[in-house]
Predict the structure.
Amino acid sequence: MSEPILMKGNEAVAEAAIAAGCRYFFGYPITPQSEVLEHLARRLPEEGGAYIQAESEVSAINMVFGAACAGARVMTASSSPGISLMQEGISYIASAQLPAVLVNIMRGSPGLGGIHPSQADYFQSVKGGGHGDYKLVVLAPSSVQELIDHTVLAFEIAEKYRTPVMVFGDAMMGQMMEPVFLPEAEPAPIDRSWATTGMKNREKPNIIHTLYLPADDLENHCQRLFAKYREIQRQEQLHTAYLTDDADILVVAYGIMSRVARAAVEMAREDGIKAGLFRPITLWPFPDQALFQAASHAQAVITAEISMGQMIEDVRLAIKDKVPVELFNRIGLVPNPDEIYEAIKKKAQEVKVSA
Amino acid sequence: MSEPILMKGNEAVAEAAIAAGCRYFFGYPITPQSEVLEHLARRLPEEGGAYIQAESEVSAINMVFGAACAGARVMTASSSPGISLMQEGISYIASAQLPAVLVNIMRGSPGLGGIHPSQADYFQSVKGGGHGDYKLVVLAPSSVQELIDHTVLAFEIAEKYRTPVMVFGDAMMGQMMEPVFLPEAEPAPIDRSWATTGMKNREKPNIIHTLYLPADDLENHCQRLFAKYREIQRQEQLHTAYLTDDADILVVAYGIMSRVARAAVEMAREDGIKAGLFRPITLWPFPDQALFQAASHAQAVITAEISMGQMIEDVRLAIKDKVPVELFNRIGLVPNPDEIYEAIKKKAQEVKVSA
Amino acid sequence: MFEVHFLEQHCKGCGMCVAFCPRKIIEMAEHTNDQGYNPAMVTDVSRCTGCAICAMMCPHVIIEVVEGGAA
Amino acid sequence: MFEVHFLEQHCKGCGMCVAFCPRKIIEMAEHTNDQGYNPAMVTDVSRCTGCAICAMMCPHVIIEVVEGGAA
Amino acid sequence: MPKGYQRPSTLVERPWHFCPGCNHGIVHRLVAEVIDEMGLQKETVGVGSVGCGVFSYEYFNFDGIGPSHGRAPAVATGVKRVLPDRLVFTYQGDGDLAAIGTTEMVHCAVRGELISIIFINNTLYGMTGGQMAPTTMMGQVTTTTPRGRGQAQGHPFRVCEMLATAEGAAYVARTAVYSPAQVVRTKKAIRRAFETQMAGLGFSLVEVLSACPTNWGMNPLEALKFVEEEMTPVFPLGELKVPEGVK
Amino acid sequence: MPKGYQRPSTLVERPWHFCPGCNHGIVHRLVAEVIDEMGLQKETVGVGSVGCGVFSYEYFNFDGIGPSHGRAPAVATGVKRVLPDRLVFTYQGDGDLAAIGTTEMVHCAVRGELISIIFINNTLYGMTGGQMAPTTMMGQVTTTTPRGRGQAQGHPFRVCEMLATAEGAAYVARTAVYSPAQVVRTKKAIRRAFETQMAGLGFSLVEVLSACPTNWGMNPLEALKFVEEEMTPVFPLGELKVPEGVK
Amino acid sequence: MKREFLLAGFGGQGVLSMGLFLAYAGMGEGKKVAYVPSYGAEMRGGTANCLVTISDREISSPLVSDPGVVVVMNHPSLLKFEPVVRSGGILLINSSLAHRDTKRQDIESYSIPTQELANQAGFSRGSNMIMLGALLEATGVVDVTETYNYLVKTFNGRHLDKMPQNMAAIQVGREFMREYRQQSEASIAYA
Amino acid sequence: MKREFLLAGFGGQGVLSMGLFLAYAGMGEGKKVAYVPSYGAEMRGGTANCLVTISDREISSPLVSDPGVVVVMNHPSLLKFEPVVRSGGILLINSSLAHRDTKRQDIESYSIPTQELANQAGFSRGSNMIMLGALLEATGVVDVTETYNYLVKTFNGRHLDKMPQNMAAIQVGREFMREYRQQSEASIAYA
Ligand SMILES: Cc1ncc(C[n+]2csc(CCOP(=O)(O)OP(=O)(O)O)c2C)c(N)n1
Ligand SMILES: Cc1ncc(C[n+]2csc(CCOP(=O)(O)OP(=O)(O)O)c2C)c(N)n1
Ligand code: SF4
Ligand code: SF4
Ligand code: SF4
Ligand code: SF4
Ligand code: SF4
Ligand code: SF4
Ligand SMILES: [Mg+2]
Ligand SMILES: [Mg+2]
């Protein structure tokens, strides 16, 4: 392994995509994501690919649709308002069963909001911001290295299941720099027998569409999609559990918040409070059984989010209301560990498990 | 009260809007919603208002934004893919705290799908299809008369809380005709001291925007929004419970499905199975305590949806996993009551409460 | 010398071929096809010049004009 | 006869006024304002013609030119 | 002139959903004929649209894509950038292209994207039941202009004239199919558009004035007459831009 | 010529966030001056945009709206249809107007919407750090055209020329502010645009070629020179369309 | 009492008007009604059908997959909807455009040559009203003496000039049906 | 050991490069590092600041609200960031552009006239490197003998021609700081 390089999150995503064999990127500038574009605008032509600046996020996601139809490994990236504009396109990509990687470097919201770090697009991407029955695999890295690893993983999952995969970042992770190693493994080869590449070696045309007019065609289509989604739920759940076995107070956090929460858990442990951290890495499929397990000893659960409370619903569903689940949240910033630590301490006193 | 008129759901929505004092409508054609437009294109000029056909749903929702800023009572309507295109705009309208009524006559999805009846946009509108922390009040009528009543109610709630309200219909309800009475009450007067109407009678400009750059401004803004949302949760929950008191098997269904479910419940009762129906009318705020209450006697809960299972998450959250919650679903059509009845019967045998 | 073939079941009876045939030898049949339309048919094929204008104007692409054996 | 007022704290030192003043009587000050810019200032106001070209070109709208008393 | 006529092999033999006399059918056929004649069946990726042409991928016998409403030019861009040597075209109605898809169409022209657009202008939204389109003519009655299009709705959008101002637009033509002669001209225009693309000369678009007998409330022949007499004065026929290479 | 200069009363006195020498500031001021002179402060609803002009509602002393990126013309349409006697204008950059907002802009022109657009063309996305815009010139280096805009990115988008083809567009002009004389012309154009609107003559748009010293990597004076020498050949100045009523 | 009617044909045959008539007739008698139009994949000129429910109680579901009464106005509709008639139900076939009788044994079925009847009666565009007459006679769903009032309501006051013709066509249909039934009863009696 | 540095100034003063230098230096010594740039509301020409964390252990949060070391390169930064210095921490003030000393009693504070020093030393654009030298001296965060290597890495191999000058500027800053400290220790001793 070579020496680590100091890299900005956004650039790391871009380089990881290249390492994963992605040669086509369609995007539209938006802070705090623009460096993904800028980096790829420079790098992709060097790699024999193309960066195309779309005229909007709506166009970008549909260019992605087209490039995926044509058999390319393809990515787009944006930030919250831009991702909203992609919702129709995402529903189409999911329905057409096209592999594609989408990156959301989330920012302050709703509306124009601002360029702050945020985790307020959980509902949008995890539950479904587009119309209809579909699911988006959502990965939530927490460091620049993981931004790289998860971008690579996103392409693998997208290929394996022919489905769109979203990588979550936030303004902080997109902008911050950390030492990283770029992946050296060869990207998986592309199988595209289904792609609309022209009928060159085929007798029958390949058709990619999302229209199912007879009701039972639509029903069968949805059933097929959801059979695939169930398979993904079985195969692809990821999480980490830190000191959860004996945890009285379980903190649940993802992405950048999981790092802060981990520090808070360590502070609590030093203080004699048995705290633990459960970190979902795949937000969908949500690692619900693992969380249920991790909470088996807990007297209380705190979800820490940079939102008004979104993942908390999945946490509640997973915990099955065994113990109270409460929200710790801040908006517009990544809080200090001691803020979460205070929340843990307070909870520990309430449920009488404090040292 | 005059005689009832036979009216198509879509036209009923349009007439109800006029009755509620709405004089501006911006929309884009889409089956199965287009009659809302067509009706208003004819009627609004007669009422001194204006129908403007937008060049897309993105434009339509932003015209709604503008008209609401200007102090108008305003509406738009579309169907699933069109609603996806409005997600950015909806997030802005919610953040800017503008009153507006949005109608989704849901159709087969995801992707282009088809023109079938559907309930697969629950996640999108109830959880949040746009970016960031906001909530959409969602009303789910189940008859043409209720389409009227809920459209009127939607305007009232939108005004009262300065927030966007969504009315859910589906392809079936939009197209079907039933006898209705149009409301005769005078619409509430419009208070628009906050609107950007020109400074005529003011010293200070009114400004409507959604940008909050300092982090604490954004945090305060979100807290204000959510204080309002909590108030709505306290004040505006609606539901009906039918034979739930002694129900062993509780069916939960909304919209057109609640009618089918009701028939199924009646079939079950005739068969000696104690079935009941809980019907959420506001999907957000979801009547969770009322549902918890209604399920107090239940051995099993069935949610019946025209989707791959979306409301079921809110049902599970409300029931707190006291009893198993299962999905009955069909895609692309409104099922017959006996299909649900079969599901009830099967469940009743499983939990050994069948007659 | 020409044969004019109609895919009768696909004909929608629009009458374009009838209107544009320079020889005026196409007419709508009395009967209806399974779709419920009166299909077009050639009355006197011997007068057909093979100009294919009927096919060119048929919006449903159901006409083929081929050089046949003796009429 | 004219006074040229600068809202010094808002000046961004862009130099547009300096470049366009026909009388060349505007210069950048040595000191910096709170924003860290060297603000513009008039050197010899008695030569000012009140043409207001400085104000017209100032992108930060911080210049006013008013008819004053005796210079 | 060659005699006789055979269905192009790039058309699947199946009944079409178009209404009797709908001009969509003629244009579908012409596209297939040109691709046949250019020998490009195996090199073509067709991008459909949402509108009465929505099933084009079921009728053409080459690779086909059904994109979302209005976004065909963006989808085609994605395809073409990945497969620069294929013939990539979109088939779009006036609602799809000139309303919701305006941005995508304009920027393909601006970028000089090497795709071709076959644009069916029938002055309204056919598939959804005859609502006003940007191309609806003044005074024309549609289901959303019950009193006829008036000042408040603006003026008909002349797409060719607008796009011709973009440097990247190499071939821009407006044709019709109301007579055999016009059908021949339309076919030639489609061919030139495809040639423009394959020669790498820039973006190309053919607007075909098309009859929608159903929503116009006319029989097929009246509708053709309407195209000739009412539409062509508002939407003049002709080639607005022809690149050197394909003349 | 009147002597002296006072800040227009329709400008709030507060420091601006614009970079040193940014031409946004000059145009802001001119808009305020025209509204002052026309006596319309109390009748105006300004619709901002997302871009370096995002804070316009904090600088103008009249009712203001901050819409989403690119949709200002749609928002303005909503306002104007409800308040037909108010002056309603949008203030948009080239990314906002000519990229993401293309559809909204084109259809306001097509509908002849009675709004005015003040369009700041600085050849790139200023606020987000200098990426290519549709108006970026051939060979121009931006953060997303590190080797200069080339064929693959198409040609610069000339908005005025394109919109002038729409019947509903009544007043269309392109100006600049690189010299006092041009500033005067720009002000006159803004006035004519507003007059066109208030007289009900149709849609109006003023494109102002504007310097972005920061993203161009130039000092303010170099940047003005760049506008004059490099931009005006690509984007010729002048009034493309003037309605009878305001001549 | 709850009765469902499925009326099917191709666009322009007036099946949707027939449905509206039934719905208004039901309302006129104080019943609950629901009317669901439905269009085939072909937006225009394709098949058109509608479903009408008339009931004494609240109509839980406006849609039924096995209606008791089915009218098919052309051949494709016969092929498509013959199988869905509820066992013991009624199928009315427009034999002018549907080229065979029913194959089902478990339903009542009548073939009505509406076009021929219409031509004979001198109003060639009255097929649907003739079928309506047959349907009213066959089902007795509403008080036929009120027919005129229902018709006026159905057309919302429009087409008042065509009313006498419509009424006459309905009468033709009713009479044809009455005879038909007598004959078939007779034939059953003699079978 | 974990140290956080907040470096603030306006755009173009090179504060982001200073941050990068620190981060690379940390990496060079095998430490965990994180670097967070942050921009003010004014996209360009406005304030610029960055936060660098260097730690022996995994860095849980790359952001701290009370950094131990703060550098302010101009007056607005002084006003904004003086309050956030952790009690007992270090504040380095570029007194060429910040017009007063600290008002806080609970921190170490040094005023460095970087511009004057740079002018004197003959490289007027070296303010940031002079401040960097002062910072290295004041904190001892990295092995200063390695400075050259870190610098090369920081600039990614670019600007190699400017290295000698940068090194000289750093030296000036270090020496100024050394004297400063001796003096202040002296003054404390005599206080
Ligand atoms: C996002 C979205 N909005 C609206 C629709 C509904 N829709 C389907 S086709 C169509 C317009 C068709 O008109 P046009 O493009 O002119 O084609 P035509 O049918 O006239 O050939 C519309 C609005 C849709 N499918 N998706
Ligand atoms: C939907 C959406 N996409 C992208 C952005 C990010 N964004 C903000 S301003 C801007 C472009 C600004 O460029 P321009 O309109 O030319 O204005 P300028 O800053 O150059 O004056 C972009 C892309 C956004 N806010 N919203
Ligand atoms: S080929 Fe020509 S002459 Fe023969 S039937 Fe067709 S149109 Fe008539
Ligand atoms: S043109 Fe074609 S579809 Fe029309 S009547 Fe003739 S053969 Fe039939
Ligand atoms: S008013 Fe004219 S002369 Fe006076 S300072 Fe300004 S530019 Fe110079
Ligand atoms: S033009 Fe204005 S901002 Fe620029 S230097 Fe002169 S006074 Fe200062
Ligand atoms: S509705 Fe019009 S455009 Fe659509 S198929 Fe029918 S005739 Fe053609
Ligand atoms: S970045 Fe450019 S356009 Fe934006 S404020 Fe600075 S100079 Fe003006
Ligand atoms: Mg059309
Ligand atoms: Mg710009």
In short: Chain A has two domains: 5-235, 239-354.
